[in-house]
Amino acid sequence: MAATRNVMRAVRVFEFGGPEVLKLQSDVVIPDPKGNQVLIKVHACGVNPVETYIRSGSYARKPALPYTPGSDVAGVIEGVGEHVTAFKKGDRVFTTGTVSGGYAEYALAAADRVFPLSDKLDFKQGAAIGIPYWTAYRALFQKGRAKAGESVLVHGASGGVGIAACQIARACGLKVLGTAGTEEGMNMILRNGAHQAFNHREANYIDKIKECTGMKGVDIIIEMLSNVNLAADLQLLAHAGRVMVVGCRGPVEINPRDTMSKESSIIGVSLFLATEEERQECAAALLDGIAAGWLKPSVGSEYPLERVVKAHEDIINSSGARGKMVLLP
């Protein structure tokens, strides 16, 4: 009789570096859930830009080598640890973090990072919730102190965090402006909550945004590429406006006087620094959004595990994001 299969395919990183350090292995032992852990059969895993920074070794957090990347998985509970009561085998779930890594056929996660996946959403949409929606909510409300009636510019709105920010801000009563680099991207953000969309590849797009706000500027900017846009963002802010730095790929030069003239703020956002209480606040708001029907992730490019190197190349170098990138084991 054949032995029970207890190994899986998983992506492993043995050294920090370029996308080529992502190695797909077929003999990785499937971990056992202990204590408050659950084992999930992965149907889809979100790919986030932060995973490319961690893989390159340039990020503040460096996992011990070797490791499997990936935190946002959606799938079905395969097994539970002895202390888990909230989930059982067969439950559809999504995660905001894993213990063993999500770029794999199975992933171990702490039960408090696992949530029921509504029948309204498929597994690919489930894999698009975690980091993007938690980050967008944190940027808007926990750090940006957004209020209904304020205006928000989502700069680079057609990717995972951008679409999440548009949906959340619109549902919470803000005036939502978004930028994208393609016609397709602009149409996507209009479908996902933006009142108006602008092409950030047009030379005069900043003037158009100013005109749209009656020249008073925007209250909040959610910024995905601050190394390119931060100086221009400061020109776009209203009095007491704030730029939320969600993404950055290098240094930038700004004139601090631009913050003085409007008493504006530049605020960094890091989901990894959220307290347990803040994470629970995010979860409550976002699960309500799923139930209400406004939280509907938009899935973009899909890659099998075999093409993980290409996925990491494309998420950094693509000409314009169109929804959330996912891996399908």
TrEMBL record:
SUPFAM superfamilies: GroES-like (SSF50129), NAD(P)-binding Rossmann-fold domains (SSF51735). InterPro entries: ADH-like_C, ADH-like_N, ER, GroES-like_sf, NAD(P)-bd_dom_sf, Quin_OxRdtase/zeta-crystal_CS, Zinc-ADH_QOR/CCCR. One of its GO terms (cellular component) is cytosol. GO terms for molecular function: mRNA 3'-UTR binding; NADPH binding; quinone reductase (NADPH) activity; zinc ion binding. PROSITE patterns: QOR_ZETA_CRYSTAL (PS01162). Keywords: Acetylation, Cytoplasm, NADP, RNA-binding. Pfam families: ADH_N, ADH_zinc_N. CDD domains: zeta_crystallin. It is found in: Cytoplasm. Its main location: cytoplasm. Gene3D superfamilies: Medium-chain alcohol dehydrogenases, catalytic domain, NAD(P)-binding Rossmann-like Domain. Signal peptide: none annotated. The keyword Nucleotidyltransferase does not apply. Residues 17-327 form the Enoyl reductase (ER) domain. PANTHER family: QUINONE OXIDOREDUCTASE (PTHR44154). Homotetramer. Belongs to the zinc-containing alcohol dehydrogenase family. Quinone oxidoreductase subfamily. This is Quinone oxidoreductase. The lineage of its organism: Eukaryota, Metazoa, Chordata, Craniata, Vertebrata.
